[in-house]
Design a protein that fits this description.
alpha+beta, Yope Regulator, Chain: A, DNA polymerase, domain 1
């Protein structure tokens, strides 16, 4: 059972300040999506706002009922909070809940993007690059950028991992700077070449 079309239009109006609201089949009902983030769920004739981060804390503090979903005989508590009838009649409060939900969903998206940023997705990098760097203790994009191309190259060289050479140094520098290695700025390329020859000579002595 879905909510009446009048209620759906009301929700669309409340969420309209954030962008176009879309719906997609979900849990036997449908979820409401804005900016690629789920913000609400309609199921069994009830409307639930999605609660994550600070929105979850607030919804639980004020005692909103959490969605209990049965899957393969197991009851699961989900982070969706039922909006009671009295809130539907109190638009300013409903707008506050909607805003809380949207802001929390956007922040969660940003946090996920930071955590999920993988080395293999950077320019010049692939799964083999990610594995090789992982073997020398560099697991995340943030660590790669913090350590820098030269130190990363030396770590790979020290442990004799992966294919070594000036091309790899260019690829590491490009990954950090956001360039394909073929279009690295000339000055940066020359600096890396000079450094590479110094390191190469010192290691061969």
């Amino acid at each position: 059972m879905m909510i009446p079309e009048q209620k759906y239009r009301y929700l669309a109006r409340l969420f309209s300040k954030y962008g176009e609201m879309k719906r997609k089949n979900h849990f036997g009902g449908y979820c409401l999506i804005i900016d690629h983030a789920i913000v609400g769920l309609v199921i069994d004739g009830e409307f639930y706002l999605r609660g994550c981060l600070f929105a979850q804390n607030h919804f639980e503090a004020i005692g909103l009922k959490k969605l209990i979903y049965k899957k393969k005989g197991v009851l699961l508590e989900l982070r969706y909070y039922c909006i009671p009838d009295k809130v539907w009649q109190y638009e300013s409060r409903f707008l506050f809940y909607v805003d809380l939900t949207y802001q929390a969903a956007m922040e969660e998206q940003l946090l996920k993007q930071k955590v999920e940023g993988r080395i293999k997705d950077l320019p010049n990098m692939n799964m083999a690059s990610e594995r090789a760097l992982g073997k020398v203790g560099i697991y995340h994009v943030e660590a790669l950028k913090l350590i820098g191309a030269k130190a990363c190259y030396l770590k790979l060289r020290q442990y004799n991992h992966y294919r070594l050479g000036i091309k790899l140094l260019f690829e590491l520098a490009g990954a950090i700077a956001g360039y394909h290695s073929s279009v690295l700025p000339h000055d940066l390329k020359q600096e890396l070449i000079r450094w590479y020859h110094i390191v190469d000579c010192s290691c061969s002595e």
